[in-house]
Amino acid sequence: MPSSDDLVGAYSSTEKTFFELASEQRLSILFRLYEKKAKISQLAKDLDITMQEAHRNVNRLQDANLIEKNPEGIFSLTTFGNTIIKQIPTFNYLSMHKEYFSEHILGELPIKFIMRLGALDKCEYVKGVVAILERWKDIYRDSDQYIYEIVPQVPIDLIEPALAKVKEKGVKYSYVLPQNVIIPKGRKDLLKKLGHSELLNKNAVERRMVDRVQVAVILNEKQASVMFPTQKGETDMNMMFHSSDPIFHEWCLDYFRYRWYGSDIFDESHLKEI
Known about the structure:
The protein is of the alpha+beta class. The chain contains 14 helices and 13 strands. It is elongated, with a radius of gyration of 24 Å. The relative contact order is 0.12.
């Protein structure tokens, strides 16, 4: 087993990189060069800093191999710098919502999705049951192609809006529920009234089951939302991250597909009505 000294040595390069990133001006230079190559005079002008500040920070970034200069004096990101800048959204997302993540966990989220949390950076934080239910309904109303969701339960007020979209617009509705799902009284009668069985037979509605749901996603082809679990491991349906950003949407869609293709056949016998 490696000693603490060995571990410190193993992360010395990472420490140096973080040290260089711990500067608003140096980060600004990196993001500016990510947009477009530039000479140092242009960097100073665009970032409203002095030439002395620009020189000092550019030299440090060069020494860290984050940027480079061509013979014409034009600066650009190195491959290392370009890759590092794409990791910043992960730290930004977690930092912006550190209070939230002091009270929530990532649940059953696989490491490959944890490493992509930066995809959720451009989002709106929605809080409160009423606001979340309205946003949930908006996703249904705004759908033209599909509604996908992995949720610990489906509020009875949302069943009719979802199935109405399927019947009226031909939207595909696919959902994943946990085996221990609790359903509200009146659900079976409402589903019968809305023709749920017929939609299942036509494959207009598809449903699957998984052992448990902690991380929930709700999305259509344009926008998506995600909810994480509390420290107790229960999905917090009072707080939601929502966005129409394509990268945010891709993360949610990939996670839905990951759970969908690893799910089991839907078994009505597991449903508990209260």
